[in-house]
Design a protein that fits this description.
- With 334 residues, this protein is mainly α.
- Helices cover 76% and strands 1% of the residues.
- Helix 7 runs antiparallel to helix 8 and helix 7 runs parallel beside helix 9.
- The longest helix has 34 residues.
- The radius of gyration is 19 Å and the shape is globular.
- It starts with a helix and ends with a helix.
């Protein structure tokens, strides 16, 4: 019952608070100005992700109050790290930060969160540096992938939901609560974002990456297999990694604004924002299911599931080329 209440609180806050926040952001000129990376052509309100942060905070607070022995501290660690990431994103939205300072602060958030989780789970302290890199890395992945309407809200909904399912499989109520709160908070922002007039901003994308990464680290240190945790985020990781490698090999500045991610190229070949976001989400659900099956199955099942997940990734990465050829074929009447 507590998990349901926590999810409802997260959804309600995230859905309702934009009514109050949007006029404030407009008054202070917190706008997203189109650049080389943008998929929009007009300035729109950004920083609306602070309402999602409020939803996550409220939902997790309810979950912590109703948590069993030993579970409250895990939820508190997840919530603290997620909100710290959101605060860093808000600073980037409002004032802007240098690349080095931003990354060092992301590493610090990941290191402190992982250290707290190591203490709580009695895991090896050697996981702290790896956890720091994982958290900082996925904060940036989520930020890079937040470029079309609906993609981040759908990602939070899909991955949060799959993490909740993993928690149910492993008998971890705290993971169910964390996953549901994240899922419902980001789902509630979709009606605001799909209009193309309200953006999460860095506060929202940092929150998304930080909350999912820290939840994943907490679950891993608590004994969940890596396949179940990496499967849901495999599409985001593959899109970002292949894009960065392509840009670096071409001698381009990897950190400069661009429109070369797979999901962006999908809109270039004719898909709408929502269609691109839905394709990313469906593929994430498929790789997530493959990861869950692989983590729970015997060796033959594991191999088959991992192979199926790899095939989904290959098809996703080639989707712009495939759809582009089909579009060209239709245009030439072939």
């Amino acid at each position: 019952m507590t998990q349901l209440v926590a999810a409802v609180v997260a959804f309600g806050l995230s859905l309702g608070l934009p009514v109050l926040l949007k006029p404030v952001l407009l008054r202070h000129g917190v706008l997203d100005i189109p650049n080389e990376r943008s998929s929009h052509t007009e300035a729109v309100v950004r920083g609306m992700g602070i309402t999602v942060a409020a939803g996550v905070a409220g939902g997790l607070l309810v979950a912590i109050v109703g948590a069993g022995a030993g579970e409250g501290p895990l939820l508190a660690a997840v919530g603290g790290a997620a909100l710290a990431a959101a605060l860093l994103g808000w600073a980037e939205d409002f004032r802007g930060l240098g690349i080095k300072a931003r990354f060092l602060l992301q590493l610090a958030i990941g290191a402190v969160a992982t250290a707290a989780l190591v203490q709580l789970t009695e895991a090896s302290w050697w996981w702290v540096p790896l956890g720091a890199v994982a958290v900082a890395g996925y904060i940036n992945v989520a930020n890079f992938m937040d470029g079309v309407n609906g993609i981040s809200g759908l990602h939070g909904l899909a991955v949060g939901g799959m993490f909740a399912a993993v928690g149910a499989i492993h008998g971890m109520p705290w993971l169910v609560s964390a996953g549901l709160v994240i899922a419902m908070a980001f789902a509630a922002f979709l009606p605001w974002n799909l209009s193309g007039r309200n953006f999460l901003g860095d506060v929202g994308s940092y929150l998304l990456g930080g909350s999912l990464a820290v939840t994943g680290v907490a679950a891993f240190l608590s004994g969940v297999g890596p396949e179940m945790l990496l499967g849901p985020v495999a599409v985001y990781l593959a899109d970002t990694a292949t894009t960065l490698l392509r840009r670096i090999s071409a001698g381009e500045q990897w950190y400069a604004p661009h429109r070369q991610h797979v999901y962006q190229r999908l809109t270039d070949v004719g898909l709408s924002h929502l269609q691109s976001a839905m394709l990313v989400t469906v593929c994430s659900l498929l790789t997530g299911i493959c990861g869950i099956v692989a983590g729970a199955g015997a060796l033959p099942v594991k191999v088959a599931a991992l192979a199926a997940g790899a095939a989904v990734l290959v098809l996703y990465l080639r989707a712009p080329r495939i759809l582009g050829r089909r579009r060209q074929g239709y245009a030439t009447g072939r």
